[in-house]
Design a protein that fits this description.
The complex is a heterodimer of chains A (572) and B (577).
Chain A: H1 3-11, H2 15-47, H3 52-99, H4 106-109, H5 112-125, H6 127-134, H7 136-151, H8 156-184, H9 188-204, H10 206-211, H11 215-268, H12 276-286, H13 296-315, E1 338-345, E2 355-362, E3 367-372, H14 378-385, E4 393-398, E5 401-402, H15 408-413, E6 415-418, E7 427-428, H16 429-434, H17 442-451, E8 462-463, H18 472-485, E9 490-494, H19 502-515, E10 520-524, E11 536-541, E12 544-549, H20 551-557, H21 560-571
Parallel strand pairs in A: 3-10, 3-11, 6-9, 9-10
Antiparallel strand pairs in A: 1-2, 1-4, 4-5, 7-8, 11-12
Helix pairs in contact in A: 1-13, 2-3, 2-7, 2-12, 3-5, 5-9, 5-13, 6-13, 7-8, 8-11, 8-13, 9-11, 11-12, 17-18, 20-21
Chain B: H1 4-9, H2 12-44, H3 50-99, H4 102-105, H5 110-152, H6 154-163, H7 166-201, H8 203-208, H9 212-266, H10 271-313, E1 335-343, E2 350-358, E3 363-368, H11 374-382, E4 389-394, E5 397-398, H12 404-410, E6 411-414, E7 423-424, H13 425-430, H14 439-448, H15 452-457, E8 465-466, H16 475-488, E9 493-497, H17 505-519, E10 523-527, H18 531-535, E11 539-544, E12 547-552, H19 554-560, H20 562-573
Parallel strand pairs in B: 3-10, 3-11, 6-9, 9-10
Antiparallel strand pairs in B: 1-2, 1-4, 4-5, 7-8, 11-12
Helix pairs in contact in B: 2-3, 2-5, 2-10, 3-5, 5-6, 5-7, 5-10, 6-9, 7-9, 7-10, 9-10, 14-16, 19-20
The chains are: A alpha/beta (572), B alpha/beta (577).
The complex binds adenosine-5'-triphosphate (2 copies) and magnesium ion (2 copies).
Residues 378-379, 420, 494 of chain A line the site of one magnesium ion.
Protein name (chain B): Thiol reductant ABC exporter subunit CydD
Keywords (chain B): ATP-binding, Membrane, Nucleotide-binding, Transmembrane, Transmembrane helix
Domain ABC transmembrane type-1 (chain B): 17-300
């Protein structure tokens, strides 16, 4: 199924509005043709000095048709636009829904500004698909068929001209333009996406760009990109104007033919003169909505591009989560035991294996620390537990369940996580804490803030995007507070205190360990101090466990851990 | 670029040209009506032969061609004016955003700004490309048509004159509503963008907290809100079209009836006149009605323009740098903090009255609990924010009397959360300096940052692609890539915010050595939590709640400052606990 077909399928949910819009469009179109026909006839008739009642009937028809037209047009517009914008809104939400399971993999291929561009710009441009591509031709066809049918009673020749004109302006010329369009292959959508991508990243990296004096270069780059985008846009708009004016001219020519042939027929005596004015008026009116048909190919291409750009992302085969049959959607509310058995893991698209082979046991209620060089795979291990990544071989067990059979949300429900880098949402401290549990009371939150020594913050303190107005350590403490407030019995802490001073760190660890007394806890740390109290210490290097045991055991072993410890002490 | 009028008048010549074209179009419309009538009248009533009407038929063809051409030309001019305006506005807006001080740049949501730059500017298009040409058409064409109708038949002219003024009145009333609404619409679109981007960045967090559903609902609400505002605008527009349609229908009907009565009862006009008027009257109303349609487009586009142009009014107290060039010497300048105070406008935090002197090539450590103001002090030193009171003196002069570039040239600042751009690792390191660098220099810098072995173990080495915000690297790896930036430049002042955060001890040791090396030619100011960095410093600045408690070496502080002593004991004593 092509992307555009998927869009159409989504559109058809708004069937009712669409049908109404088409019906009203038809009524409006036909009554406008009728209106002009009647007024043309009226004048001709009047010239022949008919009885007065005939005029009254005719003028009333004209007025009535006028009201009908105005009303129907109003309805058509209302329904078609309502349908369109509902469709667009649905499309955005569907896109987000489909995107959600693809995170974090999606970021391997797409940047956030790019995704933003797609969900806003491309979806927005699809409004033309409905408003200009999808239903107007249907309305046009209906109006034309009825008009031609009507005209054929008066003059077959003119009916044939109208038919030819119809074919020319709505089929032949748009087809010719679409041949041309294929060659032009507008890149407007693409350029807009690129610009959005770059602007977004420049904004994100603003501070570093400024500090390293790269802002001017970037700005010029953006400007030249904007230039390309505007030029593409301009090209496309001129194309539209050209196609439309050209087709407009053709419709004039058709009316011209109607007039010329009509005149000829009248002179000939095959057509009654009284109908000539009526037919001319009809041809002038009926073609009015046909002129935009020339732009049809441009909109089709634009819509195809836009819908492809949307579905390319969500259907991208490289980033789909692997299919598994999940049978467990809830895990018991008790501290779990975890086990890795002979797992192997490679990041998608990477050629080196991050974890070649690893087995590890974390008994329920145990406290484990992972230490090891930067880049040795500690965070990766946490990602595997959280099912943000999936093992290539081997199993990760949550108690007796292979996590392949457990849904991600079941696992997340049971874990309290502090990642190495935590995201904070634009809003207030309260908003960010409420993530942990929407039912939280203010005093609960205040108590937790105090326990991580953030008592100087009120719940209404504003948090900028990404927590930019918080200090490094405050962010970490806020993340810990959020974890403390969350339910669950597995703690996964990835260097939660790396930006904290020793004093604050100590008191916070105390808090965590108090609360986690019965729970299973996994802590990644670079500081070796304080690891004495852990049940088990895992030393990792290059994705492998090179040593493991209690603090005491490792010190006695005099291996890697012992050396690191000595190094640390020598530095103090 | 403060208001919309100005943006239009920049293109005066094209506007005049547009006026000329429109007049031509109006004439063509009138001639067309006369020609058509002559033909119909000729064969219908006057019983002329076909050859007698061939010349008007041919003339009509030419007139139609002229009509199509002028239409095309004037739309084209509209498009090109619109493109120029968009280019200018986007450029100005981008420049405005780029010149913002960092603090302001961090305010607000990225998605919103992106939306302003893209959607906001794009929305401005239809004002210039459609509205302006249409305004011209709707002014001149009806005027010409009306004059002609008056010359033909006064009564019809009067009917038009009476009904026509309703149209502009309607439009003005409704246009004002539309514009307000459309400012709101752009605002909604911008906040949708903001929310979407923020959600996207935080999606992992949302998943971990089981909040994706809720966030989805919020996005849906936001998206529906946007739809509703759009519909509100459109409803206004449709009602307006409806009303216009009715007015024009009624007038056309009245005119037609009037003509018929004159034709039959009084026989005071000819069929010719009647038919000309009948063709011209719809043209009269069509161009007014089209103004109605574009009017709403134009108005909503004006709303967007106003919103975008408002961004320029946003007051910004961007830092006023001076004009002096700082002498670029080998020896680092002496830096003095002179009663330095600073408050964030949005928080209660205050950095108080600091005094200190950093001699060339000293090693300075800034120490203090989390949130005590260490990063803030570095921001001040880097010139990213300006002191409220007091000053930073460099070479005995206030820092802000120098140019920003000449200060940044001397400086390398590795902030607490450096940003890694998508691109290759090499490019990311290379951005540390504005000078051209070769692979060798990048390699050396990477070595000093302790990241070279890792990079060189990768398939594409320095050409390895990484994602936005450094995706594909571990946190410690990102940290080291950003530190490598500092080693690439030969700065005389180095500001480091917890450079060894999240690094293992072995790597940390390499890094320490490289920083020592930097210190041979530069003053190094480091925010540090680790005792070993602190101990060897020439001066330690001990901060507490924004107050500079003491300045001194490790041994003096240890002896004189209980808080400092406590901190050290805890770091050492951790192992006894
Ligand atoms: N998303 C990713 N895609 C590809 N490779 C990755 C990705 N994330 C991490 N890596 C690589 O996998 C290796 C292990 O990374 P991981 O984040 O697990 O390290 P870590 O032990 O947590 O290191 P640190 O102490 O620096 O945080 C690193 O060499 C890193 O470059
Ligand atoms: N942009 C900002 N706007 C408003 N307040 C801010 C901003 N940046 C920091 N603050 C506040 O100023 C205070 C000092 O922050 P700063 O970043 O200087 O602390 P720090 O000493 O570097 O702490 P850490 O060790 O945790 O990084 C904090 O309370 C913080 O909330
Ligand atoms: Mg990590
Ligand atoms: Mg800081």
């Amino acid at each position: 199924m092509s992307a555009l077909q998927k869009v159409i399928k989504l559109m058809l949910i708004e069937k009712k509005d669409i049908v109404i819009a088409i019906c009203l469009g038809f009524i409006a179109g036909i009554s406008s043709v009728g209106l002009f026909a009647a007024s043309g006839y009226l004048i001709s008739k009047a010239a022949l000095i008919p009885p007065f009642y005939a005029l009254i009937v005719l003028t009333s028809t004209v007025k009535l048709l006028g009201f009908v037209k105005a009303g129907a047009k109003y309805g058509e517009r209302l329904y078609s636009h309502r349908a369109t914008f509902t469709i667009l809104s649905n499309l955005r939400v569907t896109f987000f829904e489909k995107l959600e399971p693809l995170v974090p993999h999606v970021f391997h291929k797409y940047r956030s500004g790019d995704l933003l561009g797609r969900v806003v710009g491309d979806v927005e441009s699809l409004q033309n698909f409905f408003l200009r591509v999808f239903y107007p031709p249907i309305v046009l066809l209906l109006v034309f068929v009825s008009t031609i049918f009507f005209v054929s009673f008066y003059s077959l020749a003119i009916a044939v001209i109208l038919l030819l004109g119809f074919l020319l302006t709505t089929i032949v010329i748009p087809a010719l333009f679409s041949l041309r369009q294929v060659k032009i292959n507008g890149r407007v959508r693409q350029e807009r996406g690129d610009l959005s991508t770059e602007i977004t990243e420049v904004m994100y990296g603003f501070r570093d760009l400024k500090l390293f004096q790269q802002l001017d270069t970037k700005q010029n780059q953006l400007l030249s990109q904007s230039e390309t985008y505007i030029n593409e846009q301009k090209q496309e708009n001129i194309n539209k104007v050209y196609s439309q004016s050209f087709n407009g001219f053709i419709t004039f020519i058709v009316s011209w033919f109607v007039l010329a042939i009509g005149a000829y027929l009248v002179v000939n005596g095959t057509l009654e003169g009284i109908f000539l004015a009526m037919l001319v008026m009809i041809s002038l009116t009926v073609f009015e909505p046909a002129a935009p048909m020339a732009v049809f190919p441009i909109y089709i291409q634009e819509s195809r591009d836009a819908s492809n750009r949307l579905y390319d992302v969500v259907d991208e085969p490289d980033i789909q989560p692997s299919e598994t049959n999940i049978s467990i959607n809830h895990l018991p509310d008790v501290p779990p035991g975890l086990a890795f058995s002979d797992i192997r893991f490679t990041y998608k698209g990477e050629w080196r294996t991050t974890i070649p082979n690893l087995s590890l046991l974390l008994p329920a209620g145990s406290k484990t620390a992972i230490v090891g060089a930067s880049g040795s795979g500690k965070s990766t291990l946490l990602q595997l537990i959280l099912k943000m990544q999936q093992v290539e071989a081997g199993q990760v067990y949550w108690d007796q369940h292979d996590t392949l059979t457990v849904s991600g949300s079941a696992i997340w429900e049971q874990t309290k996580v502090v990642l190495q880098e935590n995201h904070f949402f634009y809003g207030t401290i309260r908003d960010n804490l409420l993530l942990a549990d929407p039912g939280l009371q203010d005093d609960q939150m205040n108590a937790v803030l105090a326990s991580v020594q953030l008592e100087n913050f009120s719940l209404d303190t504003r948090v900028s995007e990404n927590g930019e107005n918080l200090s490094g350590g405050e962010k970490q403490r806020l993340a810990i507070a959020r974890a403390l407030l969350k339910k669950g019995h597995l703690w996964l802490l990835d260097e939660p205190t790396s930006s904290l001073d020793a004093q604050t760190e100590q008191s916070i660890y105390q808090q965590i360990f108090n609360q986690a007394d019965q729970d299973t806890l996994l802590l990644v740390s670079h500081r070796l101090q304080g690891l004495e109290q852990m049940d088990q210490i895992i030393v990792m290097n290059h994705g492998e466990i090179i040593e493991s045991g209690s603090y005491q055991e490792l010190m006695e072993l005099e291996g890697y851990f012992y050396q690191m410890k000595t190094l640390e002490e020598s530095l103090l | 670029m403060q208001n919309i009028k100005k943006t239009v008048w920049r293109h005066k010549r094209r506007i005049y040209f547009l006026v000329g074209l429109t007049l031509l179009l109006g004439l063509a419309i009138i001639v067309q009506a006369f020609l058509m009538t002559r033909i119909v009248d000729g064969v219908f009533l006057k019983n002329l032969s076909f050859s007698a009407v061939t010349s008007p038929i041919l003339a009509l063809f030419i007139i139609l061609l002229i009509r199509a051409l002028t239409d095309y030309m004037s739309k084209r001019i509209g498009v090109s004016i619109a493109s120029d305006v968009k280019r200018d506005v986007r450029k100005d807006l981008l420049t405005k955003y780029a010149q913002q001080p960092v603090q302001l740049a961090e305010k607000g949501q990225t998605g919103k700004k992106v939306s302003m730059l893209l959607d906001g500017v794009d929305e401005m298009d239809s004002f210039y490309s459609q509205f302006i040409p249409q305004v011209m058409q709707s002014t001149f064409v009806p005027l010409l048509v009306m004059i002609v109708i008056f010359t033909q038949h006064i009564n019809s002219g009067i009917i038009l004159l009476v009904s026509a003024p309703f149209i502009p009145i309607f439009m003005i009333v409704i246009g004002i509503q539309t514009q307000k609404k459309s400012e709101e619409k752009l605002e909604k679109l911008a906040s949708f963008s903001g929310a979407f981007l923020d959600t996207l960045q935080g999606l992992v967090t949302l998943k971990l907290f089981g909040r994706t559903k809720k966030q989805k609902d919020e996005l849906e609400q936001s998206s529906l809100g946007f739809r509703d505002t759009t519909m509100d605008i459109l409803k206004v527009a449709f009602t307006q079209s409806f009303a216009l349609e009715l007015i024009s229908m009624i007038s056309i009907g009245i005119v037609a009836l009037e003509l018929a009565i004159q034709l039959i009862i009084y026989e005071s006009i000819s069929f010719f006149t009647a038919f000309v008027i009948l063709i011209l009257v719809p043209e009269f109303f069509t161009s007014l009605k089209e103004l109605g349609t574009t009017f709403h487009n134009g108005r909503s586009s004006m709303g967007a323009a106003k919103k975008v142009l408002q961004e320029f009014d946003e007051q910004d107290d961007s830092i006023q740098w001076g004009k002096n060039e700082m002498a670029q010497e080998e020896v680092p300048p002496t830096i003095q903090l002179n009663h330095l105070s600073f408050t964030y406008p949005t928080s209660d935090f205050k950095l108080h009255n600091m005094d200190a002197t950093f001699l060339p090539k000293q090693k300075i450590a800034i120490v203090g609990a989390s949130g005590s103001g260490k990063t803030t002090l570095l921001h001040l030193l880097a010139g990213m924010i300006t002191p409220d009171e007091g000053a930073i003196n460099v070479q005995q002069q206030d820092l802000v009397t120098f140019t920003e570039a000449s200060w940044l040239n001397q400086l390398s600042y590795i902030s607490q959360h450096p940003y890694i751009f998508s691109g290759t690792i090499g490019e990311n390191i290379a951005m540390g300096t504005t000078a051209a660098v070769d692979e060798k220099a990048i390699r050396e810098a990477a070595e000093k940052a302790g990241i070279a072995p890792l990079i060189e173990s990768l398939e594409n080495q320095y050409q390895t692609k990484i994602g936005e915000a450094g995706r594909g690297l571990s946190s410690g790896e990102k940290q080291r890539v950003s530190i490598a930036r500092a080693f690439l430049k030969k700065p005389t002042i180095v500001l480091l915010d917890e450079p060894t955060r999240g690094l293992d001890l072995a790597t940390e040791k390499i890094l320490q050595q490289s920083i020592e090396q930097l210190n041979e030619t530069a003053t190094v100011i480091t925010v540090a939590h680790r005792l070993h960095t602190i101990k060897t410093a020439d001066q330690i600045l001990f901060l507490e709640n924004g107050q500079l408690q003491a300045v001194g070496t490790h041994s003096t502080l240890f002896d004189t400052l209980p808080a400092y002593r406590e901190m050290v004991t805890i770091q050492r004593g951790g192992k006894q606990a």
